[in-house]
Amino acid sequence: MSLLFKIGFLDISIVNMIDIALVAALLYQVYKLLKGSVAIKIFLGFLSLYLIYLLVRAIRMELLSAILGQFMGVGVIAAIIIFAPEIRKFLLIVGRSSIFSDDNILKDILFFWRKKENTSFNISPIIDASKNLAGSNMGALMVISSSTELKFYAESGDILDAELSKRLLISIFNKYSPLHDGAVIIYKGRIKAARCILPVTEREVPAQFGLRHRAGIGMSEATDALILVVSEETGQISMMKNGKVLHNLSFQEVREIINDYLNNEDLDDRFENLSEQELGKKRNLAVSGKN
Ligand SMILES: Nc1ncnc2c1ncn2[C@@H]1O[C@H](COP(=O)(O)OP(=O)(O)OP(=O)(O)O)[C@@H](O)[C@H]1O
């Protein structure tokens, strides 16, 4: 049984329509994932070539479609190599929202009687240590995770699994400490590891951002963690989430953002895209709106 619709000279079944809708949704997700990166230009290039290939094949231009067909065959392998980090990120997102993951809606419905694990903890040590570090111009990079202990990244550094404390954070990021290079990973009120190496973003970032900030942005692109950076140069605090940034935050704002993150609130709208030319634009607007 197949329900057919006639659009012009085309017969389209419901299955075809679902197929087209799914492909459109998939392309939109890929676009969202690549938006703002160099890879988007390569992706759009591939997509245009593929559409031309479909067109020349449909109108039976044998020679051109044979050449483009060969290119498409190699193109798939080339795309896998070029887009390896994006494919990894895409699979991470799929994995995060799969049937087996913690934040899956289906799981919430099936196991509705089970209380969602409370991931919040006393964040005062993070705020107090950040104040101290910023005041004495010591750089810091902290990864705060609410869903996993980020084992893969934790193992790139030194595992501590120590209780979170202001004094410990300050000692770690002290310039003379052997642990100060790299990031700390904080999960469920414990410092899981220090000296961790994070993935550095490949996108263009504002000129004032060096390697520490680039690593913070990269980590926020690769995982659902919240990142806090204290700048060694300026003492300013920045935070990153899902590849977006908030720059020059007050400690009250930092406290609110971490608490909201740990309470599973959606922070996406509060953060700014790197492509928004002047960082701070959104926040300045919000502040001037309040006055
Ligand atoms: N991939 C990485 N993973 C974790 N930490 C990193 C990584 N790359 C650099 N860092 C940290 O960043 C420090 C260098 O920071 P850099 O001065 O380049 O950054 P910045 O963004 O300009 O920050 P600041 O304003 O503090 O100077 C390194 O000493 C190291 O601790």
UniProtKB/TrEMBL annotation:
The keyword Transmembrane helix applies. Keywords: ATP-binding, Cell membrane, Membrane, Nucleotide-binding, Nucleotidyltransferase, Transferase, Transmembrane, Transmembrane helix. The chain crosses the membrane at residues 12-31, 37-56, 63-84. Its EC number is 2.7.7.85. One of its GO terms (molecular function) is diadenylate cyclase activity. It is an enzyme of class 2 (transferase). It catalyses: 2 ATP = 3',3'-c-di-AMP + 2 diphosphate. Coiled coil: none annotated. Residues 84-251 form the DAC domain. HAMAP family: DacA (MF_01499). Belongs to the adenylate cyclase family. DacA/CdaA subfamily. Probably a homodimer. Catalyzes the condensation of 2 ATP molecules into cyclic di-AMP (c-di-AMP), a second messenger used to regulate differing processes in different bacteria. This is Diadenylate cyclase.
